[in-house]
Amino acid sequence: MIDAVAAEWYKLRTVRSTGAVLGTVAAFTLLCVLWSWYVARYWDGLSAARRATTETAPAEQPLALALPVCAVVLGALALTSEYATGMNRTSLAASPRRPTLFAAKAGVVGATMLVAAAVSLAAGSLAGQAIVGDRPVPAFQGPAADDAARLLWLALATAAVTLITFGLGAVLRSTAATITIGLAVVFVLPVLARVLPGPWDERIWSLLPDALPGQIAAAPGSSVDHGVLSAPLAAILMGVYVAVALGIGALSFIRRDA
């Protein structure tokens, strides 16, 4: 397993697509800085009455929007690109134990996205708090423990989306199809769920992967509806999604021909 993990890490970090995904994460971290600077300047221009009713997105909001896309792309390319180039046969020749190889691939891509998300979210949040300073902007003034928990769950949710897409890629074996379905699940299904008649709109939306992080740990000062699930139930459901996707993906990877 150690050799398989080392080999998969070497492959992942040497392909251009990984650099492009991580570069996108870094670019959106800089956007977090720009967003925080804009919030600080905007806050300074408000009257006391306007400040009492004004709501803003937290410092990490640009990353919260970009990370699911990066997770889908990296999770899809980690396996489907090998089927497109025939590299999967070389991987299986070097590591013929398919369960071990699949676990190594999933572990490396999931850990990579988890670390990238955690580091970028922490950097964006800390930079935002430094820029806003002592201004009483609600989204920037939450307790440190609550902020850390929210950022951690955002990072874990990003890794979860990566692994779900990875499992989907093992079944579909197509980069285009995997990315399309992955992005549809993350961005299209929540919109469709919201147009359903109540109370089914909120109930179904609350079960979707994109809605789970906000139900586990919401941003401070936010009045947005975060769903009907309790935090423990939302966390369990996230784990179930990952387990099912990886289980089906592993079954397909192990039993189907290369």
Q: How would you describe this protein?
A:
Helices cover 78% and strands 0% of the residues. The chain is built from 11 helices and no strands. By secondary structure, the protein is mainly alpha-helical. The protein starts with a helix and ends with a helix. The model has no long low-confidence stretch (mean pLDDT 88). It is globular and about 70 Å long. The protein has helices spanning 2-14, 16-44, 48-53, 61-85, 87-94, 98-132, 144-172, 175-194, 200-206, 212-216, 231-255.
In short:
This protein is an all-alpha fold. The protein has eleven helices and no strands.
Helix and strand layout, with pairings?
Blueprint: H1 2-14, H2 16-44, H3 48-53, H4 61-85, H5 87-94, H6 98-132, H7 144-172, H8 175-194, H9 200-206, H10 212-216, H11 231-255
Helix pairs in contact: 1-6, 2-4, 2-6, 4-6, 4-7, 4-8, 6-7, 6-11, 7-8, 7-11, 8-9
Sum up the structure in keywords.
single chain; 258 residues; mainly alpha; 11 helices; 0% strand
Q: How large, in whole angstroms, is the Cα Rg?
A: 20 Å
* Mean pLDDT rating: 88
Order of helices and strands: HHHHHHHHHHH
In terms of DSSP E residues, the strand content is under 5%
Q: How many helices? A: 11
Name the assembly state. Answer: single chain
What kind of sheet is the major sheet? none
The level of helicity is over 70%
Low-confidence stretches: none
Morphology: globular
E-strand count: 0
What is the rounded distance between the termini? 20 Å
* Structural class computed from helices and strand pairing: mainly alpha
